[in-house]
Protein: 4Fe-4S dicluster domain-containing protein
Organism: Eisenbergiella massiliensis
Amino acid sequence: MVTLTIDNRKISVPEGTTIMKAAASVGIMIPHLCYLEGINEISACKVCVVEMQGKTKLITACNNPVEEGMVLFTNSPKVRSVRRTNVELILSQHNSNCATCVRSGNCNLQKLSNDLGIIDIPYEKEITEMPWNNSFPLIRDFGKCIKCMRCVQFCDKVQDLHIWDVQNTGSRTTVDVSRNRRIEESDCSICGQCITHCPTGALRERDDTAKVFRALADPETITVVQVAPAVRAAWGEALDLPAYMATEGRMAAALKKIGFDYVFDTNFSADLTIMEEGNELLARLADPEEKRWPMFTSCCPAWVRFLKSQYPDMADHLSTAKSPQQMFGAVAKSYFAEKIGADPGKICSISIMPCVSKKMEATLPDMYSAGGGADVDIVLTTREFARLVRAEHIAPALLTEEAFDSPLGESTGAGVIFGVTGGVMEAALRTAYYCVEGVNPPADTFSDVRGFEGRREAEFSLGGRTLRTCTVSGLKNARDLIEDLRAGTVHYDFVEVMACPGGCVGGGGQPILDGVEMADVRGPRLYKLDEQRPLRFSHDNPGIKKLYAEYMGAPLGEKAHQLLHTHN
Ligand code: HC0
Ligand code: SF4
């Protein structure tokens, strides 16, 4: 242990502890901006400076370990003055147009400037603006970048894609796409993790809310909205709604209040995905000629994009089942359009996703399968959904809970857990077991696949054989797994990959709580919903049974093949 004094308080902490953590352990919070635990501890912003007795130069708290006998002051007059100057210098290169910034009210720089009482900037403003392709789902606003390096480090260390790098020198230093590429030429998976780890508004999703308002205002357009599993675990955070009030029923009520004609649930098509993907797995297992092992899940578009760009020779391992978002769109513009006697071209299909890459997925060539234009016309993130609610001046706490509409609103517990790492695997195993054994197992039989450690293996016995599974989240973990598969050091039958750490609950389109990882808080919310559902097996969903009986035929059948599977 090391004993030191911080702000006149004597404390003991384990050797190697940083000053920042030592102070936090006794409730002394040292302000910081660029720091991201375990990812970015490089003191780029110099906001966390503290004074050490006997030293003239201030030291940074985020990356300096404690030393025996140190005497530190975290808020002395000298510290306050230097910290203030450092923030003023950052502001002199920052486009502080807070009124029109998506991060206003949720920006660490804004809060810090306010906390320090900065109302004038004594330096000349020198802001670097650069062109960007604003039709791309991921937007960079150079004028707001504070060069904190979090996006660079997160993409390097967690996603292993190295999309960002520092460019130029001196006051023109900025962060841009590496190797002089444009973002659309890069291998960016569009996972959006650099957005959720940006402390300011320098990174954001393309805002598509105006398109939704246009569709809602058009009396000729039938608006059909679907909400992804993980959105319900997080939407309240962006609206200051406590978790116990942020229920599925209140979320559906908010969507109805906004004015969507039909409020449906992506959980419905998650159940449908299981019917197709589970049967595809069983068909591959039954085929002695099948070589494409392991089978990979295909529902995370950032993972699919990653695999196709990094390991194109393994793309045929992907399940051909479309993601629930896309299956929903295809069903909305075919089966449902027929049911309500509408021209699919008159339906505007909108999805609310915890994800940025879903905006890209909806535009892929395979996703125009129902004859009414794109199967999903507009994709909003959870954050954009919150903006929609605010723009409509809705106070969600005052809403009475409402049910999703029928028939594309019915779902099971298996559909809900899609939004958390391991959930697709678990849901698929529940149905695969039923298909092989003819009876449902206890619903939690496959809970070994759960866990937030980034890579998790399990083995189950199914129809007299052993099924080896692996669940991965985060793209660096995915790359390591693929390298191990290629080296022949591991062997699996079925692998689930989600690009975002923790799965969609930690998605790049989710509400941002600066510096806090929320996946392991939101994940259990979905497991709880699963537990509370009367039906917990996708094949028991009455809406799904009806869809096959009335329209789709059998899983993997001709119609299913045309609408629910990819062909490229
Ligand atoms: Fe997901 Fe999905 S689980 S990818 O994370 O499969 O985005 O929530 O909507 O499509 O269902 C995201 C979440 C989805 C899809 C589902 C899958
Ligand atoms: Fe990297 Fe994901 Fe950001 Fe693309 S979206 S730059 S892959 S972190």
Summary: The CA atoms of residues 209 and 387 lie 8 Å apart. The mean pLDDT is 97.
